Every structure is written in structure tokens, then in C-alpha cells.
Amino acid sequence: MNHIVIIGNGISGVTLARHVRKLSNNRITIISAESDYFFSRTALMYVYMGHMKFEHTQPYENWFWKKNKIDLVNGFVEKVAPDSKKLTLKDGSTITYDKLVIATGSKPNKFGWPGQDLKGVQGLYSKQDLELLEKNAPNNAICNRAVIVGGGLIGIEMAEMLRSRKIPVTFLVREKSFWNGVLTEGESTMINEHILEHHIDLRLDTNLEEIISDENGRARAVVTDKGDIIECNVVGLTAGVTPNIDFLKESCIELGRGVKVNRFLETSAKDVYAIGDCAEQHEGIGSRRPIEAVWYTGRMMGEALAQTLCDNPREYNPGHWFNSAKFLDVEYQTYGWVFSERSKEDHEHHFHWRHPKEKICITIAYHKDTMKFLGINTFGIRMRHEVFDQWLTENKDVDHVMTYLKDANFDPEFYKLYEAEIVNKYNAAFNKNIRLEKKSWKRIFSKA
Amino acid sequence: MKVLQNIGIVIFLVGLSTFAALPLLGTFKVDKTIVQEIVSDNSIKSELFIQDLETKIQDKEFNGIQSLSPIIVSALANANATHRKNKEYKKVIYTKGRDMAGSIAKKSGVGFIAENKGLMWFLTFGLGIIGALLFIVPQVVLLGPKGIKNDGIYHQSSTNKGWIAWLVFIFLVSFYLVLYFRPEYATNWTYLVDPISESLSGNPAGHWFVYGFMYCIVMSVMAVRMYIKYRNNIYQVVRTTSVLFFQIVFAFLIPEIMVRLQMPYYDFKNAFPLDYDFFFQWNLKTLLDSGGIGIFILFWGIILTLVIVPVMVYFFGKRWYCSWVCGCGGLAETLGDPYRQHSDKSLFAWKVERWLIHGVLLFAVVMTGMTLYSFFSETGTVLGIKTQSVQNVYSLAVGSIFAGVIGTGFYPIFGNRVWCRFGCPLAAYLGFVQRFKSRFRITTNGGQCISCGNCSTYCEQGIDVRAYAQKGENIVRSSCVGCGVCSAVCPRGVLKLENGPEKGRINSKDVLLGNDVNLMDLVNKK
Q1: Does the ipTM exceed 0.85?
Q2: Cα–Cα–Cα angle for B411, B413, B418, nearest 5°?
Q3: pLDDT given at position B526
Q4: Where's the FAD/NAD(P)-binding domain (chain A) (predicted)?
Q5: Does A193 touch chain B (CB under 8 A)?
Q6: Beta carbons of A296 and B454 less than 8 Å apart
Q7: Which of A134, A295, B158, B337 is least crowded, fewest Cβ atoms below 10 Å from its Cβ?
Q8: Could you give the CA distance from residue A202 to residue A197 in angstroms, rounded to a whole number?
């Protein structure tokens, strides 16, 4: 029986612990300084917005951990000594392990902006960040305006949060259009429009120069590279995240931006592994980046490593890429790879359809020579994961996707369907004569 | 807009306060003809009681029912006690004291309230409706672009069990207590709706008519709120329209019109065992004495429960009844929507739920078995237990207290589906069908769940939806009423209510879609 110690109780560490428990009787300890119990990080925004209480973000009831013999330690690991297999916590206590798993996630990026450590300046990642925001911006009387710096997923979530309390928000985005390093032009344009619809003061192509302090060391205003001075009480720094691994600097474990791991998720130190946001592959797998700070990949690494730790060594070998997000009221899903104009290769072409009035659009990526289907981005239409996963596995071409598009729809019943309009546009654009097939349960569930 | 809303609140509160004050107001004058009518209508043979009426209330004026009712109640109790002591059983009056007080009061109302029914209707229902709509309609603008509108639910006193929620709780519970246990206090309310009742059934309104009318009004007004809140989600819009239609037409209008046509009062969608007294002796007798229509109702009631309900559940899940047709569900989905997040999601609550709801179903079935046995064998007891007593216990404990006082009164505290989740025997029956033989499921979309918990939080039935979704499993729980809100509030498009083949409907998974195909095969196919 091994003692498996996991640092970090996010989705990666907890998924790992659950799977190890299913497979073995190993002793399991999870250490976290952030919260006593696992919670869903992606749900923190809903606590601030009043959709849920913090306890609702905890997927397991508190008795779950004891019942499954998973020991929880509330503590901050300061030192890791792989030679003696020993951890030292901030309070001086030590924990020895047989196998150590580092699953410490990320922390918000700070790029050395003047004033970035003033009071009222914060990121949004942890439970503590949420509590801080509650203090910094409880309402629009105390926070007259917030400025958010960094146009990614957390940035737009933070803008949505603050708007839910009617706090005026200025949103500084470095790119010429929102998240256009990931989204295609048509999609990014649509989201720009939607951001404005929510009365968020969106400033594209604008960088932060400096955060100005008041006499109490609190943020008072920001200065942009356009020379604008924007008065505010809160500054949200949401320019991406970086692995949270400072405590490992003296541990002799090989580090890059994250903890370097091989395909078995092993670090350079024996019996030490890393998973989730903080793990960095020596080389990205397929088209993936070496560091994937995504909920789903954290979970998948946990699922895979559990096998390895329970005497069934397995590489981390993720399937087809998928992801999702929500931009204010617009849901976004992606299956396979759709790269933005800025990052795509020459062979990747796009077919784009957008609803004339609603905030609904899709983009399908295909290989220009073979017409092979590469991936889809869908906004405002829900699509079936299973169906696209199967099409990607079977290397279907775009004609096939168009013909059977109805099988992929996952919108609630009675929703207006747009497959006919999409296929019409496709037929016109490519001079084809694709006829939509009716939805078939048989095809949809052929893999279930 | 905000100003308009505040004006709305004030108007609404004026209407509500007037309504709440009515039971204790008003003047009642019992003249000689009323006493005579009461005596002949109820074929009262107790000279003691008649004498009491004549000396104690006849030709006197009473201010408020609270000064009249106790006299009648005690007079009736005394008369009955004396008759029982003297073994004069023919003189015993079987009408309950409070019902007697109610029918006397109904005839003897004088003064402003009884003489200005239209105006009083406007000052109560009218102001309530106008005020509520003034508050609700501006939300078209105030809520901003269409989408999920749950901002601030856990910050507001009304929806986060604050003092407003407790006031609503007290009001609702008191209302139901009056309705079930002090019906004579509802007399003034009945005056307000007399003109409406008379235009429908031809009869003056009783307190159940007040309840039925109010039910429709509350549902209609709160349906407007649903249409605005969920205008991004056509499933919710269609479903709300459906429950509203069945409430107004089937539960309210048709039974009243049937009475006008000399037919039995019957709600064609109210299926046994929710309609627990369908097989009670008095009902069977009424139906059998009503000719063709009575036989048809008897036949329909049996077919509804034995064939229509389960077959529909097979194809569509129990949602077709519980959140598309049923009146209890209809109120829960309109008036109760602001409270849906209060249902308890713990494993403990689920255990309690299973014992309670199946216990009630068993109770209903045993009681009905006894009832039918008694009916056909013409005995009053089964194995030494009085059928009537069992029926009385069920009517009081389940029919009134559980379904009414707790079921609706506790909306602001325990959530809007307490009755449907813990008590409704029909829901328990449909649940069996839904769980074991149905095409309905909530499909989980591959590996897209982020465990955020919106689905579980807003599940009115207290199902921990996330527990399934985060494992990639479909949700096939017997208690699911298919309201569709989990799917609506999901930020990642993970959940879809659908009817599909039974194969693959229950899909236990350990590793979710998106990971290594071989790993999924290994772990999921063991």
C-alpha cells in the first residue's frame, strides 16, 4: 500500500484521488491551502453573481471524503524534497509520501505593470480572489468603475460578474478584436457586439501602461497606451494564467514554465508526477499546447495518471480536442480544431454562417484540398459531443457533416433549428447540392 | 422603470392587505328567513339547535365572523352532545360546525363588502393583479438581453430565505389553514367572486371556488413573469402555456360549466391517486347516479390512471403530466419558480424522499383497496379497521396538511416541489414507470460538464444533477419532472431533455468522452 500525496484539490487532483480510490486501497492525502473541500473553480463567478452560494460549487458533500478514505489536509506546501520523499508545510509540519502528485493549478499573470500590486488590483482565479472581489466591489456605490485588463475568458467573465451588480466596467483588450487569437474573425466580431450590448465599455487594441495610486495605496485610475486616464476603484488583471509552481523552485524537479512531464506525467524526480494546469509536456501532444490550462484536460490527466499509479502504466493520450465557454449570454462549444486567422495553417479553410439577427453562428474548419472536416466552433447552438467525436475519428468530410448536421443538434426541444439555412449557404458557397438528412436516433446512439 | 416597479409593489401590497384583512371584517345579520332556510336546507331535526339559533343569533348583528362563528359551533356541539346522550341519533347533525357557520354567514352578509362585490373585487384581486404586473412587466427592459436571469437570487431577502420569504411563508400557511380548517372565515372572500361563480355554474361561490379562481389568477400573473424570465428558452415558454391552459380550462372552467349542465363536478386531468377520493363511496355514488356522463367519468378516471398516464410516461417521461398538465405542478412552476433553488440536494434528503413518497403511495393504495372492499361488500370496516377513519386520516394528513399547508405554504423555505417530491402518490407511480420503462432521459453531452452546480442548484426536485453530468452519465431519476431548467441554466450546453431509444439510456461511465479511447474502453467496459 502506497501513500499517495496530492498537492492541490482542484479538478485534476480530486479526479485522480477518486480514480485511485476506485482502483486501489492506497492511502490518499490531498493538501490544499485554498479551501477545505473541492469546489468547482469555474463556478466562482456564479457565487459573486448570486446564482449560487459557495457551498453549491462543491460537487461532493462533506462526508464524501471520509467515507472514501481520502484524507484532506489544509496547509501550504513550502518545500518538496524528492530525495527524502518529504514535504514541509508552512506551519513546519512534514508529510512523507511514496508517490507525490503536483496538481497546484495556475495563478494570474502579472506582466510587471507599474501599480500592479496596489490595493484594489486583483486577478480572478482562487476562492481568495473571489472573497477579495466581494470586498473590493460589493456594489456600485463602493466601486464606481472597474477596469479589466486582458481579453480572454476570465476577463469577460469578470466583466459579466461586475455588470451583474450594475458596476460600470471598462474592458481593455490588447488585440484588435476580442480573443481573436483563438476565435475566427466573424466569431470575434459577434462577441465584440455582444459585449457592447451588455453596456461594457470595450476598448480594443488598448494596453495598460500604468495603474495610479491614491494616497492610501489604492488603485485610483489606470493609464492606457492611448493616453487615456480611466478613473476606477478596482482593476482586474485577467491577462491569462501561469503555472503555480514557485514552491518547487528549490526542489531539483525540472521546471519550464510549468512542471516538465513526460507522456506518463512523470516529472524528472522519481515518484513525482504533475497533472493539470501546472504540468508542461516536453512537446505539445498533436496540436495541443504543452501547457493546457483547461478544466477538461486537468480531469483527463487525473483519469490517466490514476491508472499509472495503480500499476497499470498509461500514457496521457487525450482524444479529440473539445472545449466550451460562455460569453455573457452566448454559449460556445468547440470540437476538433478551428484555428483563428492569426494562427491557422494554409491548408485550413473555414466555412462561416451567422444568423442575420441573433447572436448565433458556426464556423467549420476543413482541409482545403481533401475537404476533410477538422473542427467546428458553435455559438448559440448546442451540439453533440459524441457525434462530432465520431466524425473526427472517422475522418468524415464536410459534405458528410452538412448532410447529417441535424444529428449533431443538442438544443432544447422546440428551439428553432438552423440546419437548413446553414446547408443552403454551404451549397451556394461551394456550388453543391447537399440534402439534409432527417435526425436519426439510430445514428446518434450507434456508439452509445 | 424602477419607479414603476415600486408603484407596483405599493399597489400590490394594498390589494394583498385588503384581501388579508377581509376574513375579520364585515357585518352579518341573520334574519328569520335565513334560519328557516338553513333548517330546511340541512333538514335539521334538532330543536335544541334551532332554538339556539333563534335566541342567540336571529335578528342580531355581528361584526366579523369571529363573533358569529363560535356561537354556531358551540350551539351545534352542545345540541349533538345532548342528542347523543339521549340516544336521539336521528336528531344528530352531521354537518361540521364550521361548515354550518360558513353557510349561515354566506347568507347573512350585509353592509359594504357584501353589497359592493365588484368594487371589493377590484380592491383585492384587481389591485393585486395590477400591482404585480406593474412590478413584473418592466423586467422586459430591466433584465437586459435575453438569457439566464438568476443574478442576485442569493442576495435577495425574498429568494434567499430572508425576512420577506418568511412573511410570504406565514401568509401562505395562514391562507391554507383558513381554507382547510376555518372555511367560515373565507366568507367575505366568496362575496368577491360571487358574480364570476354565478356566471359560470349559476351558484354563489364557496371557499373552494375562491381558491380555484385565485389559483388561476396567481398562475396567470406569474406565467407572465415566466415568459419574461425565460424568453430565451422556448421549451419553458411552451411548457408554461401548457400548464396554464390545463389549469384554467380543465381544472377551473370545465368543472364549473359541468355543474351548470347538471353534471358532476369533475377535473378530467386529475388522475387517481392524486385524486385520492375518486373511489370514495360518495363519489362513486354521485357518478353512478349521474347517468351516462357519470359512467363515462368513472371509465375515463380508470383508463387515465391505468393506461393513458403510464403510456404517456413511457413515451415522454412523467414531465408530460407533472410539469405540463398538473395543477400542483402548474402552481409550482409559476408561483414557485422564484423558490426552486431551495430544494435540499443532500443524499439524506433523497433517502427521506424515497421513504415518504412511496409510503404515501402505499397508504393511498391500501386506503383505496379498503374503500372498494367496503363499497362492494357494503361493510364499514376491513379487518376491524373503519374505512371511514382511514379516509379521514388520509384526507387530513395528506390531502390537506401535506399537499396544501406544507406543499405550497413552505415554498419560500423548502422550495416549490415539496409535495411533488415527497408526497404525491401519483408522482411516485409515474416515477416507477419513468425509471424502469420509459424513453425519457436527460442526456449528458459527452465530457462537457464543468461541475459548476447550476443544474443541481436550480433543480426543484432536489436531484443532484451534477453528480451524473460530471460523470458523463444520463439522468434517469424517477423524481425528475422534466421542467427543463437544469438544461436552461447550464452554461456549457451539457444537458438535454429527450425521448429516445431505451437502449443506452442508462449509461454508467467512469472515464468521460474526450480522453484516450483505449482508456475509456478499458475502464467503462469492465
Answers
A1: yes
A2: 50
A3: 54
A4: 3-284
A5: no
A6: no
A7: A134
A8: 10
Omega before B23 within 30 of 0, i.e. cis: no
Instruction: Provide the shortest C-alpha distance from residue A347 to chain B (in Å).
Output: 25
Q: Are B101 and B69 in contact (CB under 8 A)?
A: yes
pTM score, two decimals?
0.95
A 271-330 residues with CB < 8 A to B: 295-296, 299-300, 303-304, 307, 314-320, 322, 324-326, 328-329
- Give the ranges where A137-184 is alpha helix by DSSP (H): 153-164
Q: How far is A185 from chain B (nearest CA, A)?
A: 22
Question: What's the gap in Å between the CA of A295 and the closest CA on chain B?
Answer: 7
Indicate the residue of B151, B347, B450 with minimum beta-carbon distance to A42.
B450
Look at residue B218 and give its three-state secondary structure: helix
A18, A44, A47, A52, best to mutate vs chain B, most B CBs in 10 Å: A52
- Strand B109-110 relative to strand B27-29: parallel, antiparallel, unpaired? antiparallel
User: Under an 8 A CB cutoff, do A393 and B450 touch?
Assistant: no
Can you tell me the distance from the alpha carbon of A258 to that of B251, in angstroms, rounded to the nearest whole number? 65
Q: According to CATH, where is 3.30.70.20 located in chain B?
A: 438-524
Alpha-carbon distance of B147 to A330, in angstroms, equals 8
The torsion angle over the Cα atoms of residues B519, A71, A258 and A242, rounded to 10 degrees, is 110
The number of helices, as runs of H, and strands, as runs of E, in chain A is 12, 25
- Minimum-distance CB partner of B151 among A164, A314, A324: A164
**What residues contact B346, with CB distance under 8 A and at least 6 apart?**
A61
With beta carbons under 8 A apart, name residues in chain A contacting B483.
none
A107/A244 Cα distance (integer angstroms): 5
- Which residue in chain A is spatially nearest to B155 when comparing CA positions? A50
CB B98 within 8 A of CB B69: yes
Cell of B236: 419553458
Dihedral sign for Cα atoms in the order B112, B116, B117, B123: negative
pLDDT digits (tens, 9 = 90+) for A141-194: 999 999 999 989 999 999 999 999 999 999 999 999 999 999 999 999 999 999
Residue B483 contacts residue B333 (beta carbons within 8 Å): yes
- Measured CA to CA, the distance from residue A322 to residue A327 in angstroms comes to 17
> Measured between CB atoms, does A411 come within 8 Å of chain B?
yes
pLDDT of residue A163: 97
CA separation for the pair B188, B451 (Å, rounded): 52
Total CB pairs under 8 A between chain A and B:
177
DSSP secondary structure string, A354-390? Answer: E-SSSS-EEEEEEETTT-BEEEEEEESS-B-HHHHHH
Q: How far apart are CA B150 and CA A164, in angstroms?
A: 10
How far A101 CA lies from chain B's nearest CA (Å)?
A: 20
Q: Please give the angle made by the CA atoms of A351, B493 and A355, to the nearest 5 degrees.
A: 35
Contact list, A22 vs chain B (CB under 8 Å): 510
A373-415: pLDDT as tens digits: 999 999 999 999 999 999 999 999 999 999 999 999 999 999 9
Considering only CB atoms, B519 lies closest to which of A43, A314, A410, namely A314
Q: What domains, with CATH codes, occur in chain A?
A: 3-107+242-309 (3.50.50.60), 121-239 (3.50.50.60), 323-444 (3.30.390)
Cβ contacts (< 8 Å) between A52 and chain B: which residues?
154, 453-454, 457
Q: What values do phi and psi take at A99, rounded to 5?
A: -130, 135
Q: Does domain B438-524 have CATH number 3.40.50.80?
A: no
CA geometry: angle at B372 spanning B370 and B373, to 5°? 60
Residue to mutate among A20, A24, A45, A56, with most B CBs inside 10 A, is A56
- Name the pLDDT band for A448 (thresholds 50, 70, 90): very low
